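Researcher: Re-running this chain for the archive, since the previous output was lost when a drive failed. Same request as before.
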Amino acid sequence: MPLLGLYAMNGGEGPNSYAQNSSYQRGVVDAAKPIIEEEIATKLDVGHVFSTHVKPFRIADFGCSTGHNSFPAMQIITESVQKKFRSETSQIPDFQVLFNDQVFNDFNTLFRSIPPQKNYHAAAVAGSFHERLLPKASLDFAYCSCALNWISEVPKAVRDDTSPAWNKGRVHYTGAVQEVFEAYSNRYANDIGSFLEARAEELVSGGLMTLLVPAAPCFEHSETFYTTQSELELIGSCLVDMAKKGLIGEEKVDTFNFPLYFTIPQELKAIIERSNSFSIERMEILNNPGKCTLRSADARATYLRATCEGLLKNHFGSEVMDELFDRYTKKIAASPLFLDPDNEKSIIILVILKRKAE
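Model: Regenerated structure tokens:
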């Protein structure tokens, strides 16, 4: 199983690109806007910026993809910070935004798409956000939206055919034995811990961090609603069907698992609280921001293709992608469960964290 850094969201601006199929993620940004503005106005400490000499106010977006949903978020943040400075000082600093994603991310599309009227200097920082990326205490505001459901790698036990957690015939922990779920859960806890540790080094004391985390309301599954995990299970069934027809090797299916984990609010809060570097300023579930954005089978298929095709292509090859997503589209269309937005129970957890003073 390849590490997360060996693929990225679909680049460019074509019909299967992330740029054209991320309306759900844009809905998350819009839903979070008033909360981000309020928290910056009431919680951000701006005194350190002019404590010795004027320095840039640095913002980083961890997991920016090709930027189409990052740019609105950066506008919200920079304008809110400007308003905060105006209320407390006559000086406004320069802004620098650092766009981070995996090394295979399409940064060319991102920089071609940057709004011409932006009020910040832009730079790219390539690498995994599960590790340290920036100098110590160099960052004033950290942001991460719809990215912390990706773990750094599929748990080793899930890939080991001698382990009780070997996930033969499945591509995710959904519906798998308890050992598989526990392996994913432990990997997630370790990865979020590493993410928080890295950001604690990079953020100044009093710096803020906004996390918008794809999650599930609970770990139980019901036939009356679905979450993103259900869709991963559905694409897994398509892969099994293709293996039975000899279109792909059975071993290929047995050795593939999605490096995705969907936490629940209680679990995420417990992980954050184990970090001694941050205080939780606010934590809540957003009203479902994208409930009505993916009403058709085609829309749901292209959405998943935009986010996961790179991973699937890396393992199964590009020549079977059209067949795979055609089968997936037909299975979605055949299920009334997936086409009724009222059955969608995936959630977004919004978390505002503040770097404690050292």
